[in-house]
Specification:
This protein is 35% helix and 30% strand. The chain is built from two helices and four strands; from the N terminus they run βαβββα. The longest helix has 25 residues. The radius of gyration is 16 Å and the shape is elongated. Associates exclusively with 100S ribosomes, which are dimers of 70S ribosomes. One of its GO terms (molecular function) is ribosomal small subunit binding.
């Protein structure tokens, strides 16, 4: 599986990249059919006027391409590692649902 990681308004460190690869390798180890995955990490620099702090300004987005399907998820948090964790949980639920739907609609061999 090919994982592409991009950073927008932030530098993707080796620790962040390792965290992403570990989480998504665990998630997709039971799925051989994952073609590619793109992860985009963004830091929004807008400041909340009341608290003088950026609220949920770390955004993580991912697209997973499967044969015949494409899954997308987005998560935001105050910390990049938290947003990556939320993103992984969302994609895990989508992959589980996709796998369940495949089992339901799988044609029976006669």
């Amino acid at each position: 599986m090919q994982i592409t990681i991009r950073g927008h308004h932030l530098t993707v460190t080796s620790a962040i990249e390792e965290d992403i690869r570990f989480k998504f390798a665990q998630m997709t180890k039971h799925l051989d059919q994952v073609n590619s995955m793109q992860v985009k990490l963004t830091k929004d620099h807008q400041i909340d006027k009341r608290s003088r702090k950026g609220s949920s300004n770390h955004i993580a987005e991912a697209i997973i391409r499967l044969p015949g399907a494409e899954l997308f998820a987005q998560a935001t948090a105050d910390d990049m590692y938290t947003s990556i964790k939320k993103l992984a949980e969302k994609l895990k639920r989508q992959l589980h649902k996709h796998r369940k739907m495949q089992l339901i609609y799988m044609p029976l061999e006669v």
